[in-house]
Specification:
By secondary structure, this protein is mainly α. It is built from 54 helices and two strands. It has a domain at 541-642. It starts with a helix and ends with a helix. Residues 914-938, 959-980 have a biased composition (Acidic residues).
Length: 1051
């Protein structure tokens, strides 16, 4: 398409006639990949003689084509000719330099794409062009070069060290000239927005180039002094306030505010990272930090203090700059040199800068009145906190009174108490200005709650303060004070009142007022009250909850009503607390709660899907995802609260299944852990797994196969439930064939490349679930499972957890069918290798002498059961290559049992006797019956609930280091994740081993002598000791069973 035809087509795209517009768009679309088209689009966009509107359409068309087709799809040829791409690269820098703003914005996105895709491999000349443009005396070219240089630095901003090598060349080639430009710009007698834009570009380039580490050039004397001098000059440069936009929204985009923001970004980050050379590990960073500490930290601090002091005199800085200035002086508290410089200014800063920032202001009042939902969102949004000057002021206050409390805490508290008393004396005729001041004082007191609860004399004055100054505010005519009273009451709900924590008339009065405030006419008050309820409930001990139970219906109704008004994660957390603390009372409300929460979830997700297609900012989607996550957590809490009422789970399933079905797919990527937790509850606690729930099983496996490998640990929980609870369905179903689908997933995960080993470890664990629950029914799986495990072990694994789990598959297979396992390994030519690997890992030690492998009791138990099953085989069933090594099998079993016994004793020594240390769940059940704790199933459920509560925390990766971790820690970090009923729970490994040896001794004495007689005297003695220990355990089991029977008879 030649230039004239192209211009006509671009003009046609703006035609009001739909037919002309459609024909023009079609013509452009058909020719987009034609030779020369992409170059011609750029030329039209840059041609001064073309109508500006047409140029902009050309720039947009060019941008869309570049973003879509510049880089070739994998395995396919590029749709744009290489000659055209070369021509575009050649013209790009000059185009950026010469184009008007509307076109430059579009071309800027293209430059970014080209730099990220082509530099340096396909665009090596770019750096030379940028250098030449920077050195020119042409302002347009300098501006264009700064624009492109920013993208060059940005490309490497977050890259690892081995990928940042090209950045060093960029910095060395451009920073000397860039510094000269920086100095020239600062010396210009101009306040134009264009100057501010260039200053901002220089700062942003420096930010990206130094984000990961300090380039060596900055440790040169002239470069260090020059750059730091420029930053200081820009920090103190007065703003041209005569150009300040009157509209607050317009001020956010004012270029001078942006330039100030970026220089303060840099100053704060440099101080945070390089304020103390001892915190730096790299030599270049240490050198830079030494100079920064000596030459800049105090200078920058004085500049920051001057900027803040000007605020008390009516000066102006943008909220973001104030936030960064406060971050700088907060960091200054950490170092003695900067603290000494800051100390004389603290009182002035606190009373005249920091405190006013805490007070309720005009902007707060306007937002409260016009958009209370947005007021709430900003108050609870962590991202808003990061950028908020009020939050920065609170952080300074808190850090000051923690790190430098002497003199400062008393001075500040005197001021705050003065405000409290001033308002009390003026009430009820206190003017709005005093009410706003009081709001700030209450915010400060809440911010200091951790300090005041510990510091005398303040800790003893908190209850009177709450009674005299906070309780009356629940009746204030000012909504913001009612809200602050709720917020502050929540912060101090856990103090020691006169009658103890969570008790007494003051606590009760505060709780009653907070609960009443959930019905306040103003939404922000209702939300703050509802969120504060959580703190009150957390402060009450379990035995003191009964007087609060009458509140349950009211609280649930109020929370659900609020949830329909606004989506707020903290509100949902508070609802969770109500459900958790009153779990025993939830049965009458569970179905209704579940229905309303499900409706809320669907409403949130529908709103989020609608926002994706609109112009909403990115944060809106994040808010929706957080709210949806909170609702799913609340649903899990409801399901947990009714675990003793299995019949209710079928009603819950009716409500929740549509959510599970929809989001057990790629749609659920953001909330998959929570979806799997819901599925886990429904498959574990329901009386049976419904056909409808079984339809999710293949979908879960499909997710793991295609995208959810990082969630395999969460998926393993419901998969385990399906297999263990409905084994017949799992094994007999043919359409779909659940066993075959599971085996396909196991093969995919264990043979695939690039899967994280902390998730791959779930595959051998799933094999163990199948072999244990389907014993005698899946002979055909033994061979493939062993082959997969040994194949995955063959090249070695980085994670010890994964290596151990793969070896435990061998233990599971031996216990499943020892003869079949031996013959299968022999057929695979891996018998000797497998048994030798098991023996080696069983005897590998840490420096402490403890076992290096198989850290969890369950792993030790499975291996003991498997190797003992091997011992039980008659000699005739043993392959010839195994027979000579049977005494070593006995030694390995003994080693595992001794380690398991020691681990159990250490666990008992830590005072936890609630669970059976041999992994034998039946002992736990007998204990519970003797203590009248309900039936044994409830005890299993409690253990399972603990497991579910930990499911959201990712399991730590394996560690091959020969460290000396405490086995007690291992017991909990490893074994707690396997608290789930299994057929092997009823088998005590000590008794199983002893009874097996007794049987061999009685039935084949020569064989017994061969197994034990060849061992040294110490090992033989240990074998006898272990057999005696097993007799003791057996007697204890019988005594417990008899006691339980007697207790049941009395009942």
């Amino acid at each position: 398409m030649d230039a004239a035809v192209l211009v006509a087509a671009l003009s046609g795209c703006q035609s009001p006639d739909p037919a002309i517009r459609k024909a023009a768009e079609e013509a452009l679309n058909q020719s987009k990949h034609a030779r020369g088209q992409v170059v011609n689009l750029l030329r039209v966009a840059l041609e001064d003689s073309v109508d500006p509107a047409v140029r902009q359409v050309a720039a947009i068309s060019f941008k869309n084509l570049v973003k879509r087709d510049w880089a070739a799809e994998e395995g396919k040829p590029c749709l744009l000719a290489e000659e055209d791409k070369a021509a575009v690269r050649e013209a790009m820098l000059e185009g950026i330099a010469r184009s008007p703003h509307a076109v430059r914005v579009q071309l800027g996105e293209c430059v970014r794409s080209l730099v990220y895709c082509d530099y340096p491999e396909h665009w090596p000349q770019l750096l030379g062009q940028v250098q030449a443009y920077l050195a020119s005396q042409d302002q347009a070219r300098i501006s264009g070069a700064l624009y492109v240089l920013r993208f060059l630095a940005r490309k490497y901003e977050f890259r690892d060290e081995d990928e940042r090598a090209p950045l060093e060349g960029v910095v060395n080639a451009t920073f000397p000239t860039l510094l000269q430009i920086f100095q020239m710009l600062l010396a210009m007698d101009s306040h134009s927005p264009e100057l501010a834009e260039l200053l901002k570009l220089v700062c942003k380039t420096f930010w990206s180039a130094t984000y990961m580490s300090i380039p060596s050039i900055l440790n040169q004397e002239a470069q260090f002094a020059g750059w730091m001098g420029c930053f200081h000059a820009l920090m103190v440069k007065p703003l041209p306030l005569d150009q300040l936009p009157a509209n607050p929204d317009a001020r956010k985009g004012w270029q001078w505010n942006k330039a100030k923001k970026w220089v303060m970004h840099i100053a704060s980050r440099l101080f945070n990272r390089y304020g103390d050379p001892k915190l730096c590990s790299e030599k270049q960073d240490q050198l830079f930090a030494q100079r920064f500490q000596k030459e800049c930290s105090l200078t920058f601090l004085q500049a920051a203090l001057a900027q803040l002091a000007a605020l008390s005199q009516g000066g102006y800085q943008s909220p973001r700059v104030i936030n960064l200035l406060l971050q700088y002086i907060t960091q200054a508290l950490a170092y003695s040199a900067t603290w000494k410089a800051l100390k004389p200014h603290v009182e002035q800063m606190l009373l005249h800068v920091v405190f006013p920032l805490l007070c309720f202001d005009d902007e707060d009042a306007e937002l409260w009145g016009e958009d209370p939902q947005e007021y709430i969102r900003k108050g609870y949004d962590i991202m808003e906190d990061i950028y908020s000057m009020k939050t920065a002021a609170m952080t300074f206050l808190s850090e000051l009174c923690k790190a430098r409390a002497k003199g400062n805490l008393d001075m500040l508290m005197a001021h705050l108490v003065g405000v409290l008393n001033e308002y009390k004396a003026a009430h009820p005729a206190a003017p709005p200005a005093l009410a706003r001041k009081l709001d700030g004082a209450l915010l400060a007191i809440g911010t200091l709650s951790d300090v005041l609860k510990e510091k005398k004399p303040y800790s003893g004055q908190l209850e009177p303060m709450l009674l005299q100054h906070v309780v009356p505010l629940f009746d204030s005519p000012h909504g913001h004070l009612r809200a602050k009273a709720c917020w502050l009451a929540g912060h101090y709900a856990d103090i020691e009142f006169g009658d103890g924590q969570g008790k007494g008339p003051t606590f009760s009065a505060l709780l009653q007022r907070v609960v009443a405030a959930i019905g306040d006419p103003e939404l922000p008050v209702r939300i703050d009250a509802a969120v504060s309820v959580r703190s009150f409930l957390d402060a009450v001990d379990e035995e003191d909850m009964d007087p609060l139970r009458p509140l349950v219906p009211q609280l649930l109704q109020q929370f659900l009503t609020l949830s329909n008004e606004i989506d707020n994660e903290d509100l949902t957390f508070s609802l969770e607390t109500v459900i958790e603390r009153f779990a025993a009372d939830m049965a009458p409300y569970a179905t209704g709660l579940c229905q309303q929460l499900a409706q809320q979830f669907w409403r949130i997700t529908a709103a989020g899907e609608g926002a994706e297609g609109g112009d909403d900012d990115e944060d809106g989607g994040d808010d929706g995802a957080l709210a949806a996550y909170g609702v799913l957590r609340a649903l899990s809490t409801v399901l947990e609260s009714i675990h003793g009422l299995p019949q209710l789970y079928l009603q819950m399933e009716e409500v929740l299944f549509p959510i599970l079905e929809r989001y057990t797919s790629t749609d659920g990527q953001d909330i998959f852990e929570e979806i799997m937790q819901l599925a886990t509850y429904l498959t574990y606690f329901a009386p049976e797994i419904s056909p409808r729930m079984w339809t999710l099983y293949p979908r879960m496996l499909q997710c793991v196969n295609e995208w959810a490998i990082d969630y395999f640990e969460e998926v393993l929980l419901p998969l385990d439930n399906y297999i263990s609870k409905a084994t017949d369905v799992f094994l007999t179903s043919q359409s779909p064939n659940y066993l075959a689908l599971t085996n396909q997933t196991l093969e995919t995960v264990l043979t695939g490349d690039g899967y994280p080993e902390d998730q791959v470890v779930c595959a051998p664990r799933l094999m163990g679930v199948i072999l244990q629950h389907c014993r005698g029914r899946v002979d055909a799986c033994v061979g493939p499972y062993l082959a997969l495990a040994l194949r995955r072990l063959a090249p070695g694994v980085e994670s010890q957890d994964l290596g151990d789990a793969l070896m435990v598959v061998l233990g599971d297979a031996l216990y499943y069918n020892a003869a079949l396992t031996l013959s299968t390994l022999a057929a695979q030519g891996a018998l000797g290798q497998a048994l030798q690997a098991l023996h080696t890992t069983a005897f590998a030690n840490r420096k402490s002498g403890k076992m290096k492998h198989y850290s969890s009791p369950r792993e030790k138990k499975v291996l003991v059961l498997g190797l003992t099953a091997l011992l039980a085989l008659p000699d005739a069933a043993l392959p010839a290559e195994v027979k000579p090594g049977m005494p070593q099998v006995t030694s390995a079993i003994l080693r595992l049992l001794l380690a398991l016994k020691q681990q159990q004793e250490e666990h008992r020594a830590h005072g936890d006797s609630d669970s059976d240390e041999s992994g034998n769940e039946s002992d736990l059940e007998d204990d519970s019956e003797g203590e009248e704790l309900g039936d044994s199933d409830d005890e299993v459920d409690e253990a399972y609930l603990k497991r579910l509560q930990r499911a959201a925390a990712k399991r730590a990766g394996g560690d091959d280091e020969d460290d000396d971790e405490d086995d007690y820690d291992e017991y909990w970090t490893e074994d707690e994740e396997e608290e789930v009923s299994s057929p092997i729970d009823a088998v005590d490994p000590f008794i199983f081993f002893a009874e097996t040896l007794h049987a061999i001794q009685g039935g084949d004495p020569p064989r017994f002598a061969g197994l034990v007689g060849g061992l040294d005297a110490n090992v033989q003695a240990a074998v006898q000791g272990m057999m005696q220990y097993a007799v003791q355990l057996k007697e204890e089991q019988l005594q417990k069973a008899a006691a339980a029977t007697a207790a049941n008879g009395r009942a």
